[in-house]
Amino acid sequence: MSTTGRSGFGATFSGSALGSIGELRSVPPPNISVANDIEFGSMESTDGYIEYKAGMIEPGELALEIIYDADRYDALIDAIGDDDTFTITWADTSTFVFSGYLKGLSAEVPYGDKMMITATFKVSGKPTFTAAT
């Protein structure tokens, strides 16, 4: 059986208001997880084991790695805290769409290597994933 794995080459990231962000090095989806465990243990819990149920879902954050460009960096600074709808499009045309905002921005200016920007986005609410057809 041959692999169904794919290269991430060609993935894109854009915001409805922010527009497309070019020269991406990494476009990871957010780490979605259960934010809290709700404990339901009682005197009747089976064999004295504490019982749990999942609480609210934490939609997470994602951090883009972007090759530095002065105009791009300036546009991102202006967008910090602005609500927007963002779309990640993978090379196979699958999409991951979420509401959120640009939460943080940092730059790396190393000696002898490329300058990089890290843009961290906070996801708000349930994202939508649509697989390629």
Helical proportion, percent range: under 10%
Along the chain, the helix and strand elements come as EEEEEEEEHEEE
Shape: extended
Backbone CA Rg: 19 Å
> Helix tally?
1
Largest sheet: 7 strands, antiparallel
How many DSSP-defined strands?
A: 11
Q: Looking at the chains present, what oligomeric state does this protein adopt?
A: single chain
Strand order of the largest sheet: 2-1-9-10-11-8-3
Terminal CA distance reads: 21 Å
Strand content: over 45%
List the helices and strands and how they pair.
Blueprint: E1 12-15, E2 19-21, E3 24-26, E4 33-34, E5 37-39, E6 52-54, E7 57-58, E8 61-67, H1 70-79, E9 83-89, E10 95-108, E11 116-130
Explain this structure.
With 133 residues, this protein is mainly β. It has a domain of 90 residues. It is built from 1 helix and 11 strands. The longest helix is centred in the middle third of the chain and has 10 residues.
List keywords for this structure.
133 residues; mainly beta; seven-stranded antiparallel beta sheet; two-stranded antiparallel sheet; 8% helix
Summarize the structure.
With 133 residues, this protein is mostly beta strands. It has one helix at 70-79, and strands spanning 12-15, 19-21, 24-26, 33-34, 37-39, 52-54, 57-58, 61-67, 83-89, 95-108, 116-130.
